[in-house]
Write a structure and sequence with these properties.
This protein is 35% helix and 15% strand. The strands form three sheets. A nine-stranded mixed β-sheet has the order 1-13-12-11-10-8-9-7-6, with helices on both faces. The protein has a two-stranded antiparallel ribbon with strand order 2-3. It has a two-stranded antiparallel sheet with strand order 4-5. The radius of gyration is 22 Å and the shape is globular. It folds into three domains: 86 residues, no CATH class; 104 residues, Up-down Bundle (de novo design (two linked rop proteins)), CATH 1.20.1440; 240 residues, Rossmann fold, CATH 3.40.50.1820. The protein is of the alpha/beta class and 466 residues long.
């Protein structure tokens, strides 16, 4: 009988090192949880230094796995190469559908954790980690939230903050201080974007904030390091706007396409671009149908093969100095549906990262907060919630993932309040060459632990693209 590797557990909660881990809910001090499927002879692949924290097993070439066959939590190491890690089935996984932990009203009725909060509080609770991780000054965020007592004031208040930073940028530009001006224009753009983010109280102001975010950020593009070049890719009678940044290098570099989520934008993804650029990869950050400046002409759509193929075709025509044999894609939230759907058809994509996406948006609908539901109503161009919910079921990866033959890294937060971790586990289970990483302490998009997931996904894509 082959040897069976035992997970090595960090000494916590009174457990001795070397004691087998127990199945159950994630523990707050876990660095991350890797959930592989196993087969006899599966080869362990380290993603952290030897003797360190984590080991992940590739999903490649593995057969189907039972719902219960998920790795228990803990700090793990693989002692024996070629070991069979599945010792028996847990009764049910903490990720398994139908086992989500819900708060209860008196009488046992399920209730959203945010049902009793107003929309400003919902925004503050959900968005603070995200926007601070993406460049909003923490003092600006906290001060603006404190001053905003009515949801209708959210957009105007953020417009006022954005105008402060824009004025700082103009003053610096007039004095020839390009770096100071560039940073101020970026902050202004992010404030304008946050002001209109899932905010639809005044549609004229919403449109103004969207357009100002784009136009002010364009003033920063040539002064970024490395600089950005705007591309306008012909698309269905309109354009796909994109910002291309290339590291300084004598030879063409691998390219990573960055795909935003529901109400994200290419301007918001600067910090993520930096992680790839520092590792020698170029980035092309786009606004697809229904995203940011492209929300004017299109609704969001699930069939992103119709989007990525024209983008790659145009890159081949333009030859913008990137290695088009080494192209990857990273999609965030809804972008984690768009990316795999594109990869199922577009084999010029060599590797894909899906960050915090659903397997089936419709299945997650009832758990969404009212602001997010409002965003789906707006960006699907629906008449109301019933129509948007019906459309949500078309945003899914059913009968798609078996055609995603490229390496796929699926990253998810164990505390994601929009899309349950079970959705990520389904994605990883159905893709032939997928690796699933669950951060037990991560929120939606793991923005509260950006220092964990961003280096991981950037390193992974660098290794896959060569």
């Amino acid at each position: 009988m082959p040897a069976v590797a035992q997970p090595v557990i960090a000494d916590r909660a009174g457990r001795a090192c070397g004691e087998p881990a127990r199945h159950g809910a994630p523990e707050s001090r876990e660095l991350a949880r890797f959930l592989p499927r196993w087969r006899r002879g599966a080869r362990a692949v380290r993603v952290f230094p030897p003797g360190g924290w984590l080991v992940v097993l590739s999903y490649a070439h593995c057969g189907p796995v039972s719902d219960g066959c998920l790795y228990p939590p803990g700090r793990i190491d693989i002692r024996l190469p070629g070991a069979q890690l599945c010792r028996g089935l847990a009764e049910r996984s903490w990720l398994e559908p139908g086992r989500g932990r819900q708060r209860k009203k008196a009488g046992g009725q399920a209730v959203s954790a945010l049902e009793t909060t107003n929309r400003v509080q919902v925004a503050a609770q959900h968005w603070r980690p995200r926007f601070i991780a993406n460049g909003i000054d923490v003092n600006d965020f906290d001060d603006t939230v404190a001053k905003t007592t009515e949801w209708r004031d959210w957009g105007p208040n953020w417009k006022a903050v954005g105008e402060i930073h824009e004025a700082l940028g103009r003053a610096a530009e007039e004095k020839g201080r390009a770096l100071t001006a560039t940073q101020a224009y970026q902050r202004a753009a992010w404030c304008y974007h946050l002001g209109k983010f899932l905010w639809f109280e005044d549609l004229d102001l919403h449109a103004e904030l969207r357009d100002r975010a784009v136009s002010v950020y364009r003033r920063a593009l040539p002064h970024l390091d490395p600089p950005a070049e705007r591309f306008e890719i012909p698309f269905e009678g309109h354009i796909i706007p994109a910002n291309l940044r290339r590291p300084a290098a004598p030879q063409p570099r691998p390219l990573v396409l960055l795909v935003p989520g529901l109400d994200s934008s290419k301007e918001e993804l600067f910090a993520i671009e930096e992680d790839f650029l520092r590792r020698g990869m170029a980035t092309l950050t786009i606004d697809g149908p229904g995203q940011s400046e492209n929300a004017v002409n299109f609704a969001i759509r699930p069939n992103w093969e119709t989007v990525i193929t024209p983008v790659l075709d145009q890159l081949e025509r333009l030859q913008p100095g990137v290695d088009q044999r080494r192209i990857g894609l990273m999609g965030i939230s809804m972008g984690a549906i768009y990316g795999p759907r594109a990869a199922a058809h577009e084999k010029r994509l060599r590797a894909v990262v899906g960050l915090a996406g659903p397997y089936n948006l419709g299945e997650c609908w009832d758990g969404l907060n009212p602001l997010t539901k409002g965003g789906y109503i707006f960006y699907t161009k629906s008449a109301g919630e019933a129509e948007a919910k019906q459309k949500a079921y078309t945003f899914n990866l059913e009968r798609v993932l078996d055609r995603v033959t490229q390496p796929l890294l699926v990253i998810h937060g164990g505390r994601d309040r929009l899309f349950p971790p079970a959705q990520a586990e389904r994605i990883a289970r159905e893709a032939p060459d997928a690796t699933l990483v669950i951060y037990p302490d991560g929120n939606h998009v793991c923005n509260n632990i950006a220092y964990k997931y961003r280096p991981l996904m950037a390193d992974w894509l660098k290794e896959k693209l060569g």
